[in-house]
Amino acid sequence: MNEITKDLLREISDWDGEFKGAYNIREDGQCVGRVSSKNIRIETKKDKPGLEIFIAPGTKDETVSIPACVTHGDVDDLVYNDFFVGDNADVIIVAGCGIHTETGEPARHNGIHRFFLGKGAKVKYLEKHIGKGHGTGLRYIDPVTEAELDEDSVLEMDTAQIGGVDRTTRVTKAELGARSKLLIRERILTEKDQTAKTEFKVEMNGKDSGVDLISRSVARDNSHQEYHSVIVGNAPCTGHSECDAIISENGKVDAAPELHARDNDAALIHEAAIGKIAGEQILKLRTLGMTEEEAEATIIDGFLN
Amino acid sequence: MLRLENITWSTPDGMNVLRDLELDVPDGKLVVITGPNGGGKTSLAKIIAGIYKQDSGRIILNGTDITEMDITERAKLGISFAFQQPVRFKGITVRKLIELAAGEKLSLDKICSYMSKVGLCAEEYIDREVNSTLSGGEIKRIEIATVLARHSVLTVFDEPEAGIDLWSFANLIKTFEDIRNNLDGSMIIISHQERILRIADEIVIVADGTIKAHGKPDEMMKLLLENNSVTGKCFRQEEMF
Question: Do A231 and A259 form a contact (C-beta atoms < 8 A)?
Answer without folding.
Answer: yes
